[in-house]
Specification:
- This protein has 16 helices and 38 strands.
- By secondary structure, the protein is α+β, with helices and mostly antiparallel strands.
- The strands form 12 sheets. Strands 32, 33, 34, 35, 36, 37 and 38 form a 7-stranded mixed beta sheet that branches.
- Helix 12 links the parallel strand 34 and strand 35.
- Helix 3 packs parallel to helix 6 and helix 4 packs across helix 5.
- The termini are far apart.
- About 0% of the residues have low confidence.
Length: about 650
Amino acid sequence: MAKRNLYLSNVSVEEALSNYFAALEGLLIPGFEEIHVEQSLNRITAHAVYARYCSPLYNAAAMDGIAVTAANTTGARESNPITLKTGKDFIPVDTGDPIHPPYDAVIMAEDLIEVDEESVKILESAAAWQHIRPIGEDIVAGEMILPGRHRIRPIDIGVLLSGGITRIEVYAKPRVAIFPTGTEIIEPDKAPKEGEIIESNSRMFEALVNQSGGEGLRFAPIPDDYELLKETIRKATTEYDMVLVNAGSSAGLEDFTVFVLRELGEVIVHGVAMKPGKPTILAKVNNKPVIGIPGYPVSAYLAYETFAAPVLSVLTGRCDGSPNTITAVLAKRLVSSLKHCEYVRVKVGRVNDRLVASPLARGAGAAMSLVRADGFCVINQNSEGIEAGDQAPVELYRSLDEIDRTLVAVGSHDLILDLIADMMAAGNLNRTNKTQETVYLASTHVGSMAGLLALKRGECHIAPIHLLDEETGIYNVSWIKKTIPEKEVCLIKGVGRIQGLIIPKNNPLEIKSIKDLGRCSFINRQKGAGTRLFLDHLLKKEGIESGSINGYNREAATHMAVAAAVQGGGADAGMGIASAAKALDLDFIPLGEEEYDFAILPEFLKLKEMEIFLDILKSSAFHEKLEKLGGYTWDKAGTVI
């Protein structure tokens, strides 16, 4: 009597997966290829992608109407209308037209009263930079467009092209050979006889592989012939990245798969404590993963999802999930018109078992907010909006699994947040079970004070801050104590960074200090930003009134946006950090070093995502990236106070 194939093990699913990944350590090496951006849909970025150009490339009209010099419209009102003449006081513009000095504002066509072919009348003065999209409003040259290990969506393709990216390096599609086995199986186009089974599992595997970003290649069924099966698997492991063998893994007299795999390579696991799916075989041949999958359809599907899919996810760089509709707490009040059903782009994270949605930019031209968003908060028609702290429906297009592995940062902006997010998304090898584990960082830039308030309300894990106590000269500590006196708060030391004036290359106006801001156009950071508080501190020391600075109330949400405005000629100077000036090849006048840190509640230090965050702050790889950016120190990075 022929010898039956008995199991050598009956290990748990967790142990089987851990042992298999341990055996494959160093062997699952993804390939990469460069392709045209137009062909990149659903592919996975090999590394972070940075914009080559700004979008818009120039200061552009955001409305149809006329371009004017705002100062020339001062005093206009219904009781005192002002008449403007074309060519002298204004020029007609359409949406998207360039705006050049001396014009610095656009008045919408519907707000004009036509006097004659040469003249119009206005009933309200224009504010500087109203209805103008400044250079780099959406995309700034040198800004990260996409992080590594990001699945490219249609909106990403549009933004990549807008940022001047035409070719992109992505994970190559791993080629997976799929072999159905068994003398009794036949192709679906043949009429089955007694004892014959129509083969369908391999087509399911082919679809699953293709859906997951691989290239599934299904071959004709192999009869129960030991030598033929051995030669087929041997050859396949020299030509393909992964091999799936369907059926022949159980205890039947003609179930040869495990014996073939032992002869050709190493069987790591045969027999898993799962039902259905027990006969699964996990092996490697020629340093390639080979998985023997049971023949029953439900067993086959569960074995694939449990063991083949995680291996394939490493080779493809993907982390797939299903869209979902959830209810989240709104981190910021949203006001909406009664006329429309509005879809507001949001970032979503789980903080203390609550899903929290942080709104992103709502402008129709802000395509990058689509790239950054996790989904949409839907405000129904006939609703005036949703209050902060209220629950709101959110349509996700990012999986809850990814959201649950996301650190939520709300507060001050810095380029290092993009670097950390990219390093976190690149994945790490878990030391205990050797499985690939990817975590994420989602940051919303609202300024240091707003970040501390978000931390106080339980709407984030981390609040990036740089707040100077003018009396003591110490950063952040006193502000934390004043803002969140009722809770214990930890401070993770981040980086020292140089704050100063970002100015055009070669300093054409010969600006030397903040005393010169009164004779140039300026762009500031938003209220509550630590950078703005630092500027106010310097102005106070010098006895300079903020009202004397042309553009003091003109706000930008990030340091890169400030740099883009200076580079594009929209401002002669702006307050920001040295790395932003360097990124856009601008000159920089240092005004002081500050401490950019992270406020956090103690319980969040236990999160595995936070452990990875801290490891990155302390890592030499991160410090090397800081050195390339310029303008940073990191001697205390990762220290917890």
